[in-house]
From TrEMBL:
Provenance organism: Stylosanthes scabra
Keyword annotations of the record: Hydrolase, Metal-binding, Nuclease, Nucleus
Listed InterPro entries: HARBI1-like, HARBI1_dom
Protein name as catalogued: DDE Tnp4 domain-containing protein
Limits of the DDE Tnp4 domain: 29-85
Pfam families registered for this protein in UniProt: DDE_Tnp_4
Amino acid sequence: AGYMNGRGFLAPYRGTRYHVHEWAQGPRAPRNYQELFNKRHSSARNVIERCFGLVKKRWAILRSPSFYQIKIQNLIIIACCLLQNFIRMNMTIDPEEASIVDLEGEEDHPNDQDTIEAVESSNEWTHWRENLAIEMFDEWTTRRVS
């Protein structure tokens, strides 16, 4: 909630339902485009967190500070992600993935360190989020009616 819309980052709407537990109780469908955007933003965030958690769980080299040069660190991360994708494509059941606790319902992870230090505000990205949210809501509403 502390970040603004800026190049490469779309923030959720402030003051609007966001966290998964706020959507979990009964048939609480989004009432407007901001709620739908926040619901989808929250769901995407949870999926991304689970993916990174799985990669970090499997590849110990990603769990501690690295003293390699930045170029080497980038290659290590890419290699771990490629291997992870290879495993996912070739294993019917991934035992590491099956053992991960579902993060749905968890809000924040106090042990995680934020790596984004600053995002410059951008009216262009705010307008883009607004148009995207309205378009998603219109499409969602149309599908629900038909």
